[in-house]
Amino acid sequence: MKAFCFDIKADMGFFKKNDSNARVFTTYNFIHKPAVLGIFGAILGYGGYDRDKKNNSIEYYEKLKNFKIAIKPLYRKPLKKTVVIFNNSSGLASQEPGGVLQAKEQIIVESLGYTIFVPFFETFSEDEKEIYEKLEYMVKNKYAEYPIYFGKNEFLAYFENYKSLNVEELERKEVVVNSLVKMKDVDFFVKTDEEEFGLFEDHKGEKSVTIIEELPYDFDENYMYVKDLFIFTDKELKIKNNESFWRTNDNEVIYVF
What is the third-level CATH fold of 2-255? Predict the structure, then answer.
């Protein structure tokens, strides 16, 4: 199956958690699929949230909701964060005493990046096939209709390293998955000929990385986040069902969702 991938990077980021408390708005450690689809929409020039419309729909999501992607973080540990306090005197903030809302946000203050894999499915409609081809063309030529950013327009992002590739069905059941993967689709223990060791245990003195986080992966009918637990690790995992796992011609194993 054909696919393409590219890197997207920024100097800082803020992937706001919608369930954080009112005192400090916190960020996810990783970009998530709804945010990636939003970036695709910005590249293609599609509209986003428009609360003036009666149906309250999101144009980019309606056009891209059948696309599946894989997300490979280009860093191996949670990045440094800090809390920023700023005054907001626009929009709903005008209802605050004095017309100013003091907000606190936790932002990522290290350079961050991801490789995004976008496979082509024969089940795409004709419109979706055209959208796929246009997206690939624009990414290849480093062009976007709208500015792209990581969570806020202060954190401008850029994309590079476009690559056309092929992906094939994965045959092995025990592999290192190079991308984010839903925990429910893997087993948490890897068994060797000598022993069985836990996901959070170092094997034979080897240092490893394992990060688990609940991330959005879709919208529901009201355009609210649908979430699940994801894992990012450099350990071998047992795959429960090979359907969502693919191997690239660069010999990377990715999880497509």
Answer: Alpha-Beta Plaits (3.30.70)
